[in-house]
Amino acid sequence: MKNVLQLESITKWLPTANKPIIISGPCSAETEDQTIATAKQLAATGKVNALRAGIWKPRTRPGQYEGAGEEGLKWLIQAKKETGLPVTTEVANAAHVEACLKAGVDILWVGARTTVNPFSVQEVADSLKGVDIPVMVKNPINPDLELWIGALERLNKAGITKLAAIHRGFSSFEKGPFRNAPMWDMAIELKTRIPDIDIICDPSHISGNRELISFISQKALDLDMAGLMIESHIDPDAAWSDAKQQVTPAVLAKIIDGLVVRTVSSDNKTFKDTLSILREQIDQLDDEIMSKMAARMKISEKIGQYKKENGVTILQVARWEEIIQTRITLGKAMGLNAEFTSDLLKLIHQESIQIQTKVMNKIEERV
Ligand code: PEP
Ligand code: MN
User: Fold this and answer.
1) Is residue 204 within 8 Å of 25, Cβ to Cβ?
2) Which of 23, 90, 216 to mutate to test ligand 1, by most ligand atoms within 8 A of the CB atom?
3) Can you give the pTM of this predicted structure?
4) Confidence class for position 20, pLDDT limits 50, 70, 90
């Protein structure tokens, strides 16, 4: 199901000659000097389209730096005056919005910890009624696409059409290589549900460390995201928040230079012809996979019937283990990733159990 939102493309409200759009600046505005010096160095790279800095910082534990507050807004506006860069900061409630509008902030963003809370999002949306300011909405910290869409809808209903989404990854109990798991499928699904939404990737909060920023940025561009929000600081190691993931403006420039920007399509005739031949082959193979899958499920149904007549349980762990082992070995020999083969088999096995359950007990339940 597609969601219909009235949206204006980011290229209209953050006009830039370059693609991708780059938003950069410190995690937090710490002092006037740090904010302005970072902004100047960023502007000097000629690669940055907007300056970011957190003024009110949502910290997990008390006692950490919670932002400069309204005082910091003055630094941000001064940085804008000195560099000409539009400025953006995070808002979490009506008072933040009011202070930003009064100060002349160009773009607002809703943070991950606010997107999870419909009361807060609604408060921000209500305080923006009748105001024509762009708002970017970070994904909620938990992987709940509906909350992300819901926040965009609340703002859109309040009349905000200059909307974008920011993909900053999702909190997860299992600690992987990232601070926040990217779960790219969530961003892809958002774009599928709201095709007109521009998505900015925030590789800094996904990575949690500066080494992975290039890798995540390239992946985001290859998924056709509109831009990147990357944290930068004149002295990253001394930053008062998110020190490990910030880079100097000079490093930022190098990261951007190293990115390969690919287009979503090409007018080249040979490219188009070759792609369509390859896609036909994929279509053909998908047809074959689907019909083989249907045939496999029909056999599962027969097995279910046979087990029922003989009073045998659906699951035989030894058989299941044997399937997993033999298929993974086979898949590996064919160049398939073991994890992929295992995930695929689990899915097929679940459906097979489901079909046999139906045959045995005449009930339908999704496991
Ligand atoms: C930030 O941008 O510094 C921030 C607090 O991000 P998030 O809401 O993604 O955690
Ligand atoms: Mn941060």
Assistant:
1) no
2) 90
3) 0.86
4) very high
